[in-house]
Design a protein that fits this description.
Alpha-1-antitrypsin, domain 1; 26% helix; globular; 9-stranded mixed sheet; Antithrombin, Chain I, domain 2
């Protein structure tokens, strides 16, 4: 298993003005602002511990919807994202981000794809189809939603192909509703890479981890010694925490790990301090140190109902059949979003295929170099270097769950 394997699926099931130009730097900031608001809203609306979400994929799907939206439906999506997808500067920014996401090598693979599954006989706007093809790696498929089991299998097969086989079933398509046109929008993002500096499997030990409830558990704790960017900061409530940057091969994507300094400091203190300006300040203020880094091996899965989440971000008309306006997608007045599902998965391991049936207990020589040990709940985010886009953000409160 590669050291970092992330995939997610966003599924939108449908029952079927121009903005101001932004600078490149402002768009980077807007991307981070959306990521922070999405994550904080998810934390507030869903009572859970471990969590992972992909803001960049959610934003990409909302951007595609914005091409087809009109009226207040368009305005709500624009306000949530902070930009108008018809703006040429926005399109150029997204093209640059998508181009880098498509640059894969033997060691790193990033793949973003969108598909529209449309009820047979439905006429989509030619302009919308053109915009969809330009916005991301998109494709168009006919579907028969009266055969909901067959259609679910059709969509799930597409998802599996575009996520490296990671998600086998994701779309529970319900029965066809007479009188309404059904359209399913699927957006997937897949990331797999190796660490720039690998964690050695033989250095992995079963070490203590203090979970959120205060329980001490033994977890597989990985170790590496490397030159990394590191910083110590204070939250808005003046509680201290540390950040370390762990780059992947190619330096196009890095994982940032944020850990409270005091074991009694809750993650919510750091989460409350998350803003685009603070993240920019923290990441630009970090200094290079040679460090001993301890990181638990972990695997997370999250399933989020975006139909409950997006209204908290001010996007609600698209779910209301009386208010949804997708005239830019189809002249059919019965088009609205009936279901929105987000699935994400992340697996972080040492740096290569795992060996089974091997027990390794390594006594590491202690030195005076700084130590970063993620032995208590921590936050993480994966950021794309060229756009500052937050590809994934989440928290780990128990690596074993």
């Amino acid at each position: 298993m590669p050291p970092a394997y992330l995939l997610l699926v966003l599924v939108f099931l449908f029952c079927v003005s121009r903005g101001y130009s932004h600078s490149y730097e402002r768009l980077r900031e807007l991307n981070t602002e959306f990521a922070v608001r999405l994550y904080q809203t998810l934390v507030e609306t869903e009572n859970r511990t471990n969590l992972v979400v992909s803001p960049s994929s959610v934003a990409n799907s909302l951007g595609l919807l914005q091409f087809g939206a009109r009226g207040s439906t368009f305005t709500q999506i624009e306000n949530a994202l902070g930009y108008n997808v018809h703006d040429e500067s926005v399109q150029n920014f997204m093209k640059a981000m998508h181009k880098e996401l498509g640059n894969s090598s033997q060691e790193t693979s990033m793949h973003l794809a969108c598909a529209l599954f449309v009820q047979t006989g439905t006429s989509l706007s030619a302009q919308f189809i053109e915009n969809a093809a330009m916005w991301a790696n998109s494709s168009l498929h006919q579907a028969n939603f009266s055969e909901h089991t067959w259609t679910a299998n059709q969509i799930n097969q597409w998802i599996t192909r575009n996520t490296g086989g990671g998600i086998q079933t994701a779309v529970p398509c319900g029965p066809f509703v007479p009188g309404f046109t059904q359209i399913t929008l699927v957006s997937t993002m897949y990331f797999r890479s190796r660490w720039k500096t690998k964690f050695s499997f033989t250095d992995t030990q079963m070490l203590p981890f203090i979970s959120t409830d205060g329980m001490v558990i033994k977890v597989p704790m990985m170790h590496q010694t490397a030159n990394v960017n590191y910083g110590q900061f204070e939250s808005s409530s003046f509680e201290k925490f540390t950040i370390v940057e762990l780059p992947y091969l190619g330096n196009t994507v890095s994982m940032f790990v944020l850990r409270p300094t005091d074991k009694n400091m809750p993650l919510s203190s750091i989460e409350a301090s998350l803003t685009s300006k603070n993240i920019a300040l923290w990441t630009s203020s970090m200094k290079k140190f040679k460090m001993d880094i301890f990181m638990p091996r972990f695997k997370l899965q999250s399933h989020s109902d975006l139909k409950a989440l997006l209204p908290a971000l001010g996007v609600w008309d698209l779910f209301d059949p009386r208010k949804a306006d997708f005239k830019g997608m189809s002249e059919d007045s019965n088009v609205y979003v009936s279901q929105a599902i987000h699935k994400a998965e992340i697996e972080v391991a040492e740096g290569g295929t795992r060996a089974s049936g091997v027990t390794a207990m390594v006594l590491l020589k202690r030195s005076r170099m700084p130590v970063f040990k993620a032995d208590r709940p921590f936050l993480f985010f994966l950021r794309q270097a060229c756009s500052d886009s937050v590809l994934f953000i989440g928290r780990v409160t128990n690596p074993l769950h």
